[in-house]
Each structure stands twice: as structure tokens, then as C-alpha cells.
Write a structure and sequence with these properties.
- The chain contains 7 helices and 5 strands, in the order H-H-H-H-E-E-E-H-E-H-E-H.
- By secondary structure, the chain is an alpha/beta fold.
- It has a 5-stranded mixed β-sheet with strand order 3-2-1-4-5, with helices on both faces.
- Helix 2 crosses helix 3 and helix 5 runs parallel beside helix 6.
Length: about 210
């Protein structure tokens, strides 16, 4: 019995050090990712997570839908971008109201730029930073928001030979939208753990 308790305590310490370390890819995430990172059975990770308010309070409902695959033929071939409204937390985050999220559909590598507003100049500067991070982009998919279709931004896309388009179907930019859900879910778990809505100090680590 003593050995079992010692083992349980050791496992709990390991899970705690992984889950609450914002720099760990498995932090504030789901069961399978945590189990893989800790090299333990999924059931053990799930049992531990069900004791954590940060997990149970923000556990998403999952629905399975038939989705059309989004095809990409290499790094930089297709980038999906979106704006996430975080304005209600701006006071705690140095006036940041929006997050420009972008993801390379092929590599699944994501990028996040913090914006104080979604003016033409603010979005333009965010995309300039994105281009420096990613490099050449062939195709860029966004929604039909005016912030993505201002003249200054379109000029940047033309200059860099980027084919910018929006999908009119129900699928839209599904890859970046899925990333947005993951990011927001992770942030809300961090809010619960910290007891604060401040995130700007750890955004690049999430």
C-alpha cells in the first residue's frame, strides 16, 4: 500500500509539473497529449485531470462531423489566418484587443500576433511580421472580414505574389478555426489557474 501511494504521488508530481508548465507543449491540454508527454496510460492521465478545475471547467464538448480535407503541398503553400477578439480582456493585457492567428496547413505550425485594434495599419504590420517569420507564402485563406481586404494589405499581398482568397462554403478556414478553439481553451484554463485574465506575458510560450 505504501509503495502504491508513493507511486501515485510521484505520478501526480510529474503530471503537475507538465500540465502547469506553460512552456510545455502538453500544458493545459487534453488527456492524450498529457499521457504521451508523461509516458503513462491514458486512463491515469484522465483520472488526474478530472481532479483539476482548470480542466473540468473548460472541457470542450466534442461532436464528430464529416469534413472535407484541406489540402496543402508543402510549407508556405497554404496559410490560414483569422482574428480572435480578446477585447474584453484588454485592460489586463496592455490594451491588446485582437490576436491575429495564422497556421501553416502543411506543417501545422501556428503564429500569433497581438494587436491593439484591427485598423488597416495594425493588420498590415502584423502581416509584415508574419511574412518575416514564415517566409514566402503561395496561398492565404481568410474570412471575408474588411480588415483582410483593405487596400494597404492587398498591396502587400500583390507585392509578395500571395494568392489571397476567402471560402464561401461552410468549411471556411477550418484549420485555423480549430487552432483558435485550442488556443482559447488553453488560455481560459490558464485564467482559471492564475485567477487572472492576464495572458500577454505568456502568449509566446503557449
Amino acid at each position: 500500500m505504501a509503495i502504491t501511494k508513493l507511486y501515485d504521488k510521484r505520478v501526480e508530481d510529474i503530471l503537475d509539473s507538465i500540465y502547469y508548465d506553460v512552456q510545455n507543449p502538453a500544458s493545459y491540454g487534453g488527456v492524450k497529449k498529457l499521457a504521451k508527454e508523461a509516458s503513462i496510460p491514458v486512463k491515469v492521465a484522465e483520472k488526474w485531470l478530472m481532479k483539476q478545475n482548470t480542466y473540468t471547467l473548460h472541457k470542450p464538448l466534442r461532436f464528430k462531423f464529416q469534413r472535407r480535407k484541406t489540402l496543402s503541398y508543402g510549407i508556405g503553400d497554404l496559410i490560414q489566418s483569422d482574428l480572435v477578439d480578446m477585447s474584453k480582456f484588454s485592460r489586463q493585457n496592455k490594451g491588446i484587443k485582437f490576436l491575429l492567428t495564422s497556421i501553416d496547413v502543411f506543417s501545422k505550425k501556428a503564429y500569433v500576433q497581438a494587436l491593439k485594434n484591427k485598423s488597416a495599419n495594425a493588420v498590415l504590420e502584423a502581416f509584415k511580421k508574419l511574412l518575416k517569420q514564415i517566409g514566402p507564402i503561395k496561398h492565404l485563406q481568410t474570412d471575408q472580414g474588411r480588415e483582410f481586404y483593405n487596400k494597404k494589405l492587398q498591396k502587400l499581398f500583390t507585392k509578395n505574389k500571395i494568392n489571397h482568397y476567402s471560402s464561401h462554403s461552410e468549411y471556411k478556414a477550418s484549420v485555423v478555426e480549430r487552432f483558435n478553439r485550442t488556443l482559447k481553451n488553453k488560455l481560459f484554463r490558464i485564467f482559471t489557474h492564475r485567477g487572472s485574465y492576464k495572458y500577454i506575458d505568456i502568449l509566446t510560450k503557449v
